[in-house]
Amino acid sequence: MTPPEAPDRETGTMPPAASSCPDAGTAARPLTVLKTRKSFLMAARAARQGTQSMMVQARQRGAHEEAGGIRVGFTCSKKVGNAVARNRAKRRLREAARAVLPEAGRAGWDYVLIGRAGATADRPFHLLKGDLAHALRKLHGVRS
Region entry Disordered: which residue ranges (predicted)? Predict the structure, then answer.
């Protein structure tokens, strides 16, 4: 199993997920990683939706801010566990975001995914992706 790729240090964009479909990366929008405390705090004041495996905070960026693409941040508190457990939870959130956000996310929005103790690292991956998709539908007001 190969480790997930890290975001490009200069642009902050995450590489597209590998797929068996040859043209899968062409339609996917790249995700930009939130890095500054200010960005995380602005998302914390916005809408949030909890699921069994994570908390998702989402906000639409204003007209005066950088408007292009989807931005996403990941965080886990020390309640999740030691550094190894927190990093594992964030890796799983990162992969779920790569799989779900290009289709379910909206351009011009910031998302912060917050890991939960035990649940994020232990939940089966297909359910983790389902939780993220459900949270995005609720945040965007889409009826399912």
Answer: 1-25
